[in-house]
Structure formats: structure tokens, C-alpha cells
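During the second half of the funding period, the structural biology subgroup turned its attention to how the target accommodates small molecules. The most pressing case was zinc ion, which had performed well in the primary screen but for which no bound structure existed. We therefore specified the complex as follows and requested a full 3D prediction, including the ligand pose.
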Amino acid sequence: MDFAVSNRPLDKLNADALIVLLSKKGDLPETLPESTREQIGQFIKAGDFSGSKNQMSWLHQPDGVAASRLLLVGVGDREPGRQQWQELVRKVIKTVSQAPVKQAIWAVNGVFSAPLEWQIREGARLAVESLYRFDQYRSQSGPASKLKKLTFWHPEKDNSLARAHKVGKAVGTGVNLARDLGNLPPNDCYPEYLSGVARDLGKQYEKLSVKVISQAQAEKMGMGAFCAVAKGSERQGQIIVMEYKGAKPSKQGPVALVGKGITFDTGGISLKPGASMDEMKYDMGGAASVFGSVKTVCELNLPIHLVAVVAAAENMPDGRASRPGDIVKTLSGQTVEILNTDAEGRLVLCDALTYVQQKHKPHTVIDIATLTGACVVALGAHAQAVYANDDDLSQALLAAGQETGDRGWPMPLWDEYQSQLDSPFADMQNIGGPKAGSITAACFLSRFAKEVKWAHLDIAGTAWISGGMSKGATGRPVPMLTRYLMDLA
Ligand code: BES
Ligand code: MN
Ligand code: ZN
């Protein structure tokens, strides 16, 4: 999909479709040619179009413009919020992509008052996301979209807008990579597969270097918690490290992302119930968002120094698997009593967190994980939980979520919750009981990020859509993370 911005007169700008958003008030955008406005006016008067929310009508051979069709899109009587506007854009792109339209123009007009730059950035991103499909496992795929080019049109020339669609496209590409990885079946997407994805990215982008720590090496290094999870699987666990040097390494160190990459979570010996267990293929959603974000950062050539770590393992019940009651020593030296082998995400993450701090001395670490069912109970599918030991970091992530519509919500990390992790036998246990499950999981991780600005995103509710034919990975929180990284740069 290609994007452009243009301010050429609409009677000179050829296309198969011109998209125009209209409010219910029927005010026609002043930027459109006189004869086009007249024709739309008649169309409205005749009762063919009212401008009500989500209404869409095609008008062929419109007057005054070179495009061969108009798509009139109703936004309703009140200005949509940014979230609603994003929903509308997804619908518009779906409609356009099902029509015989190769090239479309979007007349960016005043019915929606968000900055032009924002509209173009998000418009390009949502277009890339809306054309996403995952049909590599079907023997016959449906008709492909013909839409190849979308031009954002605005009468005034504004050079800052050209970058907006590049940013949007790069973020959409990162989101779609995360969705692909999430949607892959767990028989094909296992830890070593993810190492391959990292190596491919490393070959593709000059500024990205990749290193993989094997399970055997991890064991020698002292990653006892990570290995306690990985050792129950035939598939070898992998600690995947990607370093992107878009800026010279500085004294303050890099920013680090750490993703939970459980390619399948059976629960281990604390086996999960069978219903919907297939959805635990998405338990590498944190890792997927790390890969997606790295891709976006590379595409945009951002001037930052970033280290991204993926803790990849498969959580299986096996003769070699960890048992409830096992005590393991983490890379940090702290010991953990594993009371429930299904609380495996924190076990793989704690060693990855320690590793990245010891090895790379980052100024900030953000981990991303489909960590707890309790988070889904608390926040549902709309917001990811945001935990942080630093208020500025928390604010920056929440703001990045607002800006992109990939929203988070702040959660407490109070000391009072920490005692739920007390163990009679080890430094801590890996579960905190039935209360506040997402918070105690975050408290567990906080013990491995004491000397650094750290945030944890629990994306259990946002990383994928459950059930039915709309089931699939969402690619969240790539928009939030990449916006945060762009704000850093
Ligand atoms: N991957 C799951 C969390 C999860 C469950 C995400 C359902 C999305 C939907 C995680 O590894 C897990 O099993 N967590 C346990 C923790 C518990 C044993 C303390 C959970 O949430 O039940
Ligand atoms: Mn689990
Ligand atoms: Zn899990």
C-alpha cells in the first residue's frame, strides 16, 4: 500500500474514488469544487444521503473532480471522538477495498478537528491495518483488495504532512508483523522460530544486530527461573536479544523492551482447563509487540538506542517439567518457590529483566506480557494495564496510548501488595493468591527492576480478540510503544 499527500486541484487529480466525510448538519466542505458541492447537495436533498453515523453512499461520475466515484461517509450529528473516528476509518477502508478501486483520494476536511498531521498519520496506519489478512494456512484465499494507493488531499501545501503518512505506514507494518506472529499456530511458531524472525530482521536492517542465548547457555548463566519453564518442552527455550543503534550509545544507556514469548501456555503441570486453550498460542503477544516495534523503529530509522529482549519458551507438562513446590534460583540471585507452574510468564521475564540490566545498563526498561487472566477481569479488552516505578514513565506511556488510541490505564504497585508473595521456604513465591492477581504479578516483576526506571504492560486483554470469526491478534501495544519511542527521539 502506497500513500501520498497532495494539494493539486481535484479536477486534475485522477483516481478511482474520492472519499468525503460529511456531518449530519449537511455543511459541505468548502474545499470541494463548487459543482461537486452542488451535486452532493442535490443528492442529500433527494434523500439519498443524510450524513448519519457510518452511512456510506457511492456517487458515480461526480461533477467537478477527476475521480470517477465519490464515497460519501456520514459522521453523524456530533463530531466523533478520536476513537470513534478511528473506527469509522477502518469501516471506510473496508468498504473501499471491496470496491473496484485501485487508487483513492481522501479529502481531509474540517468535519473532524484533530490536527491534520494526526489524521494523516492515523489514517495511513489504519489503512495498513485494515487491509491485513492472515490466510497463509488456507488452500484458497478470498479475493484480494485492489486498493494500492491512498492519497490524502488538502488544499494547502504543508511539508510536515509527508512524514505523517510514512510514520503511519511504518507503525501499521509493525502492528501487522505482531499480528502475523500472534496468529501463527503454535506448532510452527515456537521459540527457535522467533529467533529466526529476529535474525531475518537483523539481515534486513543494518542498524540492528541480533544475538540468541540458547537454553543451555541460559542455564550456565544462572537463569534458573527461565529454564524452569523452558525445560518442560521438547522445544528449546531462547533468549533473543536485538540491539538497534540508531543513535550513538550514550552514557545514559539504551531504552529496553522485554517481551514475554511463551509460544504456547498449557499451564505446565498446573494444567489449564481445556476450553479455549488454543488461545494460549497468543501468549507470545508481548514478544510479538516487541518484534513489531523493532520493525517500526528500523523502518523509520529513529535516532535512538534500543535493546529488545524476548524471553521465548513453551510451557508444557512433561517428565522434565517443573513441579509445584520446586524452588529455583533466578539470575538476580533471588530464589523463587514455584507454587503454580501456570504463573510462568513472570518466571521467564524476571531473568530477562535482570539480564538486560546487567548486560546493557538501560535507562528505562518496559516489559510487555500477556501476564494474567485477572487483568482481563479488571480492564477487559479496551485498555492494557500500566504499572511503573516512575511517574514520568507511566505518564509518557499513558499519553502515547491516548495519542494513538492504543490506550492503557494506570494500576497501583503499592508495597502493601508485596507481602502476598511471601514464601515460607524461599525469597518469594510465584503466585500471590486470588486477590489482585494482575497487581501481584507486577509486584513480582518489580523485584527484578529495582535500580532502573521500569514499566510493565499487562496486555492479556488487549493482545488478541477472542472467539468467533473475528478472532485474531491485534498487534497491540505496538502503537503505544512506538509512539513512546518516537517521543523519546
Ligand atoms: N498466559 C496466562 C495469562 C492469561 C490467561 C492471559 C488468560 C490471557 C487470558 C498466564 O501465564 C497465566 O496462566 N496466568 C495465571 C496466573 C495465576 C496462576 C496466578 C492466571 O492468570 O490464571
Ligand atoms: Mn500461564
Ligand atoms: Zn502465560
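Two results from this model are relevant to the next phase. The first strand starts at residue 2 and ends at 6. The chain is about 35% helix and 20% strand.
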